[in-house]
Amino acid sequence: MGPVTGAGDSTTPGGPAEAYAGGPVGALRRIAFLLERSRAETYKVKAFRAAAETILPLGEEVLERVREATLRELQGIGASTAEVIEAAVEGRTPDRLARLERETAGPLVEGGEAIRSRLRGDLHSHSDWSDGGSPIEEMAFTAIELGHEYLVLTDHSPRLTVANGLSVARLTRQLEVVEAVNEHLGTGGFRLLKGIEVDILDDGSLDQTEEMLARLDVRVASVHSKLAMDAAAMTRRMVAAVHSPFANVLGHCTGRLVTGNRGIRKQSEFDADAVFEACRETGTAVEINSRPERRDPPTKLLRRAIDLGCLFSIDSDAHAPGQLDFLSYGAARAEELGLDPDRIVNTWPGDRLLDWARP
Q1: What's the N-to-C CA distance of the chain in angstroms?
Q2: Among candidate residues 42, 73, 104, the one where a domain is terminated
Q3: Predicted TM-score (pTM) of this structure
Q4: Mean pLDDT of 89-95
Q5: For the chain, which terminus, N or C, has the lower number of CB atoms within 10 Å?
Q6: From residue 121, how far is each of 24, 85, 98, 355 by CA, in Å?
């Protein structure tokens, strides 16, 4: 399987040729994907994903229900989703879908195509096991449709209770699910990798047992609490975390928010040279977080990390399938600053990535 395709490409999930031929499930999934990709409110997306889940197992019964006008008797099917299903069954492009294709299906950002075409996967994504909005399987299927060779599932660690972080027991069960998903997908060239976004605790330790961390393929270490702590203490905290043999990627290093419905949040203060030197020495990748509301690290710090010789990971931090396409934002920033693609670990083949990530 080749690298990820460009944003807005007809091979994106449920793209025109596939979705409309794929019937109502494809049309519903395509609408949800485009809404997520354009950062629509979650409540606007849920109806379409729920409707797709409802009708997926029904087969020919959907056609019968359209003929008998009984679609809306099904749980989770409302007026707007019924209209999409009816149009797709009749071979028409649903009006809602046609409008979204016109308004949102184009490139997310100018530039970055060369690096985006080199990216083989994504090291930071969330499912409904923590604070994501979709099942693991849907995240994996969408990654495949985007052309990924691998996707790392990185749900949150226990301390982040607000995001339903995974205890040892829940993470153990999740690893079994990941194995089952890979077994179901077979040997088509895609791998769903076992991972975690593990909290960096106040003293720089990681919020999961070493036994569990050792069972994972890739680990993203991030600060989520006390983001405004003293700069010297934050520096010690981050340097200690980076020196852990289990820290592969330093996630959204400043924790800032620059836009969006979560409001604005100032970036954490720390000695960037000390933290990035530690990343360079340990081979820990600095994440270029592609979420538009983060743009983390800020350009000044990103340029400094590049100058100091760090490795990088361009990640979507996706909390919904359509957000997996956010990689375009990070790719554009990396290309603008002249970052060598071979220093971006998710341009590497899966085996090289796993060798690098092994503690």
Answers
A1: 27
A2: 104
A3: 0.92
A4: 92
A5: C
A6: 28, 32, 29, 16
Q: How many other C-beta atoms can be found within 10 angstroms of the C-beta atom of residue 92?
A: 13
In a domain, residue 6? The reply is: no
Query: What is d(CA 46, CA 155) in angstroms, rounded to the nearest whole number?
Result: 20
Q: Quick check: is 9 in a domain?
A: no
Q: In degrees rounded to 5, what are phi and psi of residue 110?
A: -80, 140
**Tens-place pLDDT, residues 35-59:** 999 999 888 899 999 999 999 999 8
Number of other CB atoms surrounding residue 18 within 10 Å = 16
- Tell me which residue range forms the domain holding 65: 16-104
Q: What is the DSSP letter of 322?
A: G
The structure tokens 């485009």 sit at: 34
> What are the backbone dihedrals phi and psi of residue 90, each rounded to the nearest 5 degrees, phi first?
-85, 5
Helix (H/G/I), strand (E/B), else coil: 153: strand
pLDDT 10s digits, 163-196: 999 999 999 999 999 999 999 998 689 999 999 9
